[in-house]
Design a protein that fits this description.
mainly alpha; 10 helices; 235 residues
Length: 235
């Protein structure tokens, strides 16, 4: 197996692993513990399962580390197609990772407020719970902001795939369309939040291109016969 094929298959496996990680740590666990709009119930759930909630924060951070590793694997796979666009792709992921790591602080702040550390005794319990819910809400908004970068990095990735010559052009096009799908969903989430769920459901076929791309890398891999002429460096 050639190094580039091996890199493609590893990247595909890593890419696919992000889906269950994201669903579990970004959606399932928080949804089980946080009672939407109810600070008291959320406080009781989180304090009763504090280790689980902290585990979800750790998993959130770990998922962003996996995404960063994925970006460098894809950079290794595609940098000879166009190094400038490969740098742009990694740059967007780096920003996304930084936003994700900083956003985790909101969840940690919520735990501190729910627990009521000694220096917080001057604040009444209902006020602390309300402030904690504010940080949880900020974490959700930060997640929506991060979706902007979840879309932006797909454009240089799609362009590199389209130009590569050893990966199908339709996958490159699909990834670029997915970029704009994420951006539209992000704008709706930030400006018209009442329509976010509807917009996200309509965008699913578009963003599904990421998983199709990951499966292609893992199962099919690059076209070995096209590798030699396709990997001539250009700027």
């Amino acid at each position: 197996m050639s190094p580039i094929v091996k890199t493609a298959r590893i990247a595909g496996a890593v890419y696919l692993s992000t889906l269950p990680l994201a669903i579990y740590f970004w959606s399932y666990l928080p949804g089980k513990l946080i009672a939407r709009g109810n600070a008291t119930a959320s406080a009781e759930n989180i304090l009763a399962h504090e280790t689980l909630f902290r585990f979800s924060i750790l998993g959130d951070l770990f998922t962003h580390v996996i995404l960063l590793c994925l970006a460098f694997l894809l950079y290794r796979l595609l940098f000879d197609v166009n190094r400038t666009w490969a740098f742009v792709m990694v740059g967007f992921v780096l920003v996304s990772t930084a936003v994700g790591f900083l956003n985790a602080l909101n969840s940690l702040a919520a735990v501190i407020l729910f627990r009521g550390a000694d220096f917080l005794v001057v604040i009444d319990k209902p006020q602390r719970e309300a402030m904690a819910m504010l940080f949880i809400r900020l974490h959700g908004q930060g997640f929506l902001i991060n979706e902007v970068f979840s879309g932006l990095w797909l454009f240089p990735l799609g362009l590199l795939v389209f130009r590569s010559g050893f990966l199908p052009q339709f996958l490159g096009l699909w990834l670029m369309v997915a970029c704009f799908g994420w951006l539209v969903v992000s704008v709706i989430a930030l400006v018209f939040p009442a329509y976010y769920d509807t917009a996200f459901s309509f965008a699913q076929p578009v963003v599904l291109g990421e998983m199709v791309f990951a499966l292609w890398l893992l199962i099919k891999g690059p076209n070995v016969q096209a590798l030699a002429p396709a990997t001539t460096p250009n700027s």
